[in-house]
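U., I forgot to send this yesterday:
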Amino acid sequence: MAFRRFAITGIVGAGSLVMIKEYYEKSRVKASWTTHHNTPEPSRKWDDNWDCRRPTPCKEVDSSGDKEVAVPTATRHLILIRHGQYNLKGKQDQDRYLTELGKEQANMTGKRLKELNYPITKIVYSTMTRAQETGKIISSHLPEDVPVENCSLIEEGAPIPPEPPVGHWRPEAQQFFQEGARIEAGFRKYFHRADPNQKEASYEVLVCHANVIRYFVCRALQLPPEAWLRMSLHNGSMTFITIRPNGRVGVRAIGECGYMDPAKLSTT
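Result:
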């Protein structure tokens, strides 16, 4: 009799626990885009060591005793600028120079940067003709002591097959294989948290290309990189990305061009 009473008590207790669990599960708010039957976990958690530069939580010992491992304290700002409109009839890179409209767009973007008055740390040009010309026009509006660098890693190319695919643009598989690796190398070169030795915020300008910028945005936000072609960027537009000392990344603007005369806008 005692055993039966104990067994019944156990069954009732277990049943109560199940009911309580079901109640709390039903009361938990699910993401609005789920079917409400999915678990409320993030579809993808943020990788806080995405740049492999997260400080190791340990101590170094020197002659003076314990010394905390240096950690980043500065913020890095990256301003990605798409080149101006260029001659689409050019077969070779040197023939794909800026049109008169493209020069105007670059000039407006240079003026905008001057108005914003950011303490630009350096400006980097893609080595392609249209980016070189755009960069030089922009630089003419910046202080003369702003360092200028050239980089072939951020030349235009095919970063990764887009999803969904499009019928009007189908690079060969070898293009994605070769150019994708190069563009990814460009991302890893410029996208990372500040070095511990950097004491003040930095503002770096990269003058490059639409495919490169869109891929960089997806990678920086840890979004599916295949989504890069779902965005569109105007010629001469600015995309502003901030990388905090703890590795958190934020986008302040994508393809900003509101400072341009609407009649001067283009996406070619």
